[in-house]
Specification:
The complex is a heterodimer of chains A (about 325) and B (about 400).
Chain A: E1 8-14, H1 21-30, E2 37-41, E3 54-58, E4 61-64, E5 69-72, H2 77-85, E6 93-97, H3 104-107, E7 116-125, H4 130-133, H5 140-148, E8 152-155, H6 163-176, E9 180-183, H7 188-192, H8 196-200, E10 208-210, E11 227-233, H9 239-247, E12 253-262, E13 265-275, E14 278-286, E15 292-298, H10 304-311
Chain B: E1 3-5, H1 8-14, E2 36-38, H2 39-43, H3 47-56, H4 60-73, E3 77-84, H5 89-98, E4 106-112, H6 121-132, E5 139-147, H7 177-189, E6 193-198, H8 201-217, E7 226-229, H9 235-244, E8 247-250, H10 254-266, H11 268-272, H12 278-283, E9 288-290, H13 301-310, H14 327-341, E10 359-362, E11 379-384, E12 387-390
The chains are: A alpha/beta (about 325), B alpha/beta (about 400).
Amino acid sequence: MSSGPDRLPLTVIGGYLGAGKTTLLNGILARPDGQRIAVLVNDFGDVDIDGRLLASAAGDVLTLANGCICCSMADGFAETLETVRGLADRIDRVVVEVSGVGEPRRVARWAHLPGFTPDGVVVLVDPLSVRERATDRYVGETVINQVAGADLVVMSRSDLADEADLTGTEAWLSTTTDATVLRAPLPTAVLLGPAPRNLSTRTDAEAEADSIEDGATTPASPSHDHVSISRHLDGPIPRSSIDTWIRARPGGVVRAKGLVRVDDRPDDRTVLQVCGSTTTVTVDGPWDGGAEAVVAIALPGTPRAALVKWLNLLG
Amino acid sequence: MHLATVNTALMEAEGITPDTAAEGVPRDASGWPLGELQEFPAMALAGAAFRSFFGRQRSDETIHLFGKSARNVGITTLTDLGSSNLLDETIVRQWTGIVDHGFPSRVVMFHGAMQNGAVSDETCAAALVELQKESTDHLRFGYVKLLLDGSIQGGTARLRWPGFHHGGPNGIWLIPPDQFADRLAPYHRAGLQVHTHANGDEAVDVLLDAVGEVQAVHPMPDHRHTVQHCQMTTPGQYQRMRALGMCANVFSNHAWFWGDQHISITVGPDRAARMNAARTALDLGVPLSMHSDSPVTPLGSLHVAWAAVNRLTSSGVTVGPDERITVGEALHAVTMGAAWQLRMEDEVGSISPRKFADLAILEADPFEVDPMELRDIPVWGTMCGGVLHPAAGVDA
């Protein structure tokens, strides 16, 4: 992103004990998809950082050779966010791990602090156990609240579960949450959204398709089939076109992000954001003269033409 | 801490404006924040002021003021129930440097095991057993605090059916119920006493199950594991606590500070009348103490005792008269009852040869005054280990 009132996108990742958070966080740190990601964990025991990846360690901050960092929140959440804000020139986004009995939607409230902007609540579920957990006397309500508060639900261990478990869990989830439900593994850009620099470096005037860089370290992953489309905008867009755009969103869109100017607030930067089922429109400060652009990422099989048409609704 | 109020200057300095998208920031009709910040994520918007407030809570000056506050209200033994991480050598040295002869009160330090981070409970227990050797007459180590749920008034306690009277969702778990016994076990095995925060009756169920489980595997006579707050505990649970050898430290002040709200909002009249059931605990033979949870309610054992004796709410209702206890029972709970739960029953808690000369010096006999006046008895000050400590403003 360009200079100006940059805020670090903050994504919250939750899910009950054993849902696969550690696997997911390790995957993000190992394959950050070209983004410099700060992963905030309850303690370093929650991740398993390959020693060859580690560039340096200082107190509660581990720095990886690929530009990512991992921070322990042992000293408190507010203190850790302050530390991360001080590292803003070294990172592109923040991922926060929520404890197994925490409610990710509540933790996401912290993303409104200065220097940050909310970028989705992702909740992991184990397709083999989540339905049983949801009826547990002590934690059933917690599990349901986690799932109900998600923008994006990711079923871990999809490769270990049989299709009946997966479809059964998907059917249960559809009655429990409005969130978009996906099966792991997923590329980082789908989980967390496009790299911020994709928005600032585009110069193409029309919507254009390209592929997601995912590090290509997991050939079995379906990531190559995900569809990414971006569009450069020029000048303020009508407020009404945003409403139209939100309503016309094609099925299959998982993530989208736009930095735009709007006709009724032409001097401010307006942020459009799609994470799973949720679309938000916020103002994050005065317009800084940077690029105006929007990027969308969709599931495999989503027609490119539909995405191009959708992005062209803005303006 | 659930709420902060800030002024316009601070909001301008920290950029709290109509564009502030945070939840928990009430606004006026034009969309401007009013200055009320609800819960930590919103309070943190106050930036440096927020951090400085919590930083000052840990200063040397604050510890000295804590001792003076105790002296002013007639307390001779204080507990820090888990606010400190005693694996941090700096924090231990800060307390050992301050709390010694001359400090107006003894202090019992509970390690806040919720702050262990990546340190395992086994490692932590071993460290606390070592630290226990540094205990002095004035400063005690070797106690552990765990937390299971939140608060009743905050809607975060874990309640059994039918849950909150206001219909809100059940509360939060601070330790997953199926992991609690595993967290308790290493301290139990090491012979360390564990006090566990459990406000709601469902949280107490988890705690009692866990104590039963660790006792079955590693029987430990006289462990005195204690339920902290213990507000919603049922008579049946008190019977189990007796059978398991556990203690109850109830939060009697709730009757006065939130009794009306408990009747009308949080748990309804039937359960409000049975909250902080001191009478039931004593009748069923559970060792009883009572606390102020300062700074949640003001420090002061006379008020705590008064609340248990009268169970009066702020609006003048007697909430649960059947759970009232006598003045003698209440004074025993805040002296010998507390001493037992801190394993200091042979050192403090009563005036006796071969115990420390620790006295609360009152201007009237609590057995002579009207029980409704118990909290109003003036405090001259204290004697701690034979050293007089007149309260602020007392002409000694």
